[in-house]
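$ run holo --ligand "2-acetamido-2-deoxy-beta-D-glucopyranose" --emit tokens
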Amino acid sequence: MLPRLPVCLLISLPVLLVQGSSSIKGSAPASPPPTPSPFGDPTWALGLKLYQSLRSDVSSVNTLFSPLLVASSLGALGTGASGTTASEFQDLLGVSSFAKHSSQTRELLSSALNSFVVSNLTSFHLHTSSAVFSKLVPAVSPAFVKDSKAKFRLQHQPLGKGDSKADLELLQGWVKEGLDGLEGAPLEGEIKAGAGALILVNAVHFKGLWEREFSDDSKDSRIFLGKKYTKVMMMHRAGFYRLYEDVANMVQVLEVPLWGGKASLVLLLPFHVEDLARLDKLLTLELLSKWLENANSTSVAVSLPKANITSTVSLQKHLLALGLTDAWDPKVADFSGVSAGGKGVLHLGNVLHWASMELAAHSGKEEADLEEENIEKPRLFYADHPFIILVKDNVTGALLLMGALDHVEGEPLHDEL
Ligand SMILES: *[C@@H]1O[C@H](CO)[C@@H](O)[C@H](O)[C@H]1NC(C)=O
Ligand SMILES: *[C@@H]1O[C@H](CO)[C@@H](O)[C@H](O)[C@H]1NC(C)=O
Ligand SMILES: *[C@@H]1O[C@H](CO)[C@@H](O)[C@H](O)[C@H]1NC(C)=O
Ligand SMILES: *[C@@H]1O[C@H](CO)[C@@H](O)[C@H](O)[C@H]1NC(C)=O
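-- output --
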């Protein structure tokens, strides 16, 4: 069989021509066309800000959340807000910088969410549910419930009269059902929902299916140099992947496509073993865009740990720090579109997020196909130390998941080593 290389060479010729002509017009992006840029997308802007806020807590280990789910659920709730409460939601989603009207941002989020869900079972296995829980709220507007369900897959669920323990049990039961029986990581701290509280909850479980299967040998255990050193299983594959090596910032950027091309994983790995504090602080939309644009098809030998990342977070203090303030205050919050009665009836009680992701070797092909591409002198991408994970939708460009793998569960290595 012919190796893939000649095809690449053939393609690169027209590509050069296109580049040449586009430089005259100065408009078309450099080739090969990367997916839509993080700029102009509320999921990237909000995702990055939330990520950095979550990571500023130095005790956070294995962060994971879905910027798309958070943004779209907040977008839905924002439609039920009025006055300054509504403008805070709009500012948070960057409406003024991305779109002339908040309806444009909401359409964008709604279609990205739809694209995410319909890709289920092609590029990945996805379980997800979102709901707004209401505590002792007399009547929630049927129009709000209908609209937020249709556009943002946001259900409405009333909480009972019980105390905070009962509320948490109810929430956790709902999350488990939404994740198809998977137990989410426990929530730290308690939830206090007074009368009139709205609690926004997202749950997501994601397992990507690679375009090309990785090989995994169950006897091949290596050491992951994370928060604690552990013995883990690694999976490997050599082939052509989009790679960028930022020498100044000492980070490798790798894009691994998923089956069916609907989404891809982007991994950010420091050159050397270190915790992610430096990289977390470095991230900006500009830098991420530059990395994604500069990544080009390179022969790479990729090694990744097999791992499950789970994370449960309360986003309340982080959203507060990002400027969502009135919404939490029972006296000034205005959710008159959610329930009649206007100001002072409803307020936001919490925003909770359960997420889990499995890194495994499978591709989307029915039969395992370990065919190697004909590669020479591959670059090494050896992820035996912490890295950042982004999952982006290839069609809409939305940021589906963002997280950090600081630690992989496994047999601990003894201290003397
Ligand atoms: C994805 O497909 C699985 C299997 O059919 C199903 O259980 C799950 O609910 C689907 N996920 C979504 C988000 O629809
Ligand atoms: C994204 O989709 C385009 C068009 O379907 C496809 O050519 C490209 O290979 C996809 N990219 C990835 C990373 O899968
Ligand atoms: C890919 O990028 C690297 C560094 O950014 C560059 O040296 C190389 O020439 C590029 N290859 C192609 C085919 O554009
Ligand atoms: C991750 O969890 C799944 C079950 O959800 C399990 O089958 C798999 O073995 C786990 N992987 C690792 C590396 O622990």
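-- notes --
The longest helix spans residues 5-25.
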